[in-house]
Amino acid sequence: MNAPTLDLINQKYVSRTPQMVDCGMRVTAAERGRGTMTMPARADWVGDPVRNVLHPGALTVLADSACGLAVMSALPQRLPIATLDLRMDWLRPASPGQDIHCEAHCYRLARSVAFVDAEVWQDDRSQPIAMARATFMLSTPAGHRPGTGAPPPPAPASSWQPPAASETVQAGRPIPYADYLGIRVAPGVSAAAAPLYRLPYHEKLIGNPRLPALHGGVVAGFAETAAMLHLAQALQGAKLQKLPKGVDFAVDYLRAARPVETFAQCELVRVGARVALVQVRCWQSGPDNPIINARGHFVLAAVGGAEGGDAPR
Questions:
Q1: How does residue 192 score in pLDDT terms, banded at 50, 70 and 90?
Q2: What pLDDT, on the 0 to 100 scale, is given for residue 225?
């Protein structure tokens, strides 16, 4: 595709989306049903300062953006789209000093749903760092249900109020990507309760400026951060040495994430000798009205720094 056409795509797709602009993303290739995007290296994308590897959330934002581009390029006419679900499989660590690339392919375009897969890599295309698979809903005008012309019913009223106190996430040392998102944590209301993670609203996190709504990749990255921190704290407590390494992370998007503070709480579904399964629920108005449900498998980092070893059950 020639440069003027790519410039036009970047102007229409990237420059109008605050999160893509803030991440420095650009479209590098596009054709019917396919799109490739690049995100430059940045110190903010580090997710594990001990291993010096990128946070999966930064890669998820890129993958979700590229998948949306592939769907848009497959449509015969411009329509609003929304991510229904997204799964990321983490194949190998990503280095912080290299740009990140993602090519997405819309391999099936149905009447109301589009199916996409994507590949993420850095310097060597033959050594992908992640694979993504996503489903998108087509024709979702802001404030209306497809085919009805009627506005959606309001969310049920909630009396839930977040705790006033919270603190920055440190996990023994700063986590650059968590700092970039501004994630904070509040202790559980009781000794048995799970911590509450908070994502403050910031304009740079917007992925759909028309609604407006937070970027789906940002919400997924927030949820996966909460899962890693919750798992590490539950198993290692004050002796935290390394964050767990993600194997996969799957997100179901239930409703648009409005431009307000977002909350997450986690549940340890299963903890084995080497791998744990964590479930995450994110909400805004209250825990009874989730905006996403997510789950992920993580390889455990044993106390003392060894990978895998026996973990508490």
A1: low
A2: 96
